[in-house]
Amino acid sequence: MKRFFLTLMVVFLALGLIGLTGCTKKTETGMAKEEAAMQKGLGPMVVMGTPMVKMNKKANAVIMGTGFKPKQEIRILLTTQDGLQSDIGYALKPGPKPDASGTWGTTWSAGRYIDRKLVKAGAHIITAADGDYNPIASTIVTFVPEKKAKTKK
Question: What is the pTM of this model?
Answer without folding.
Answer: 0.69
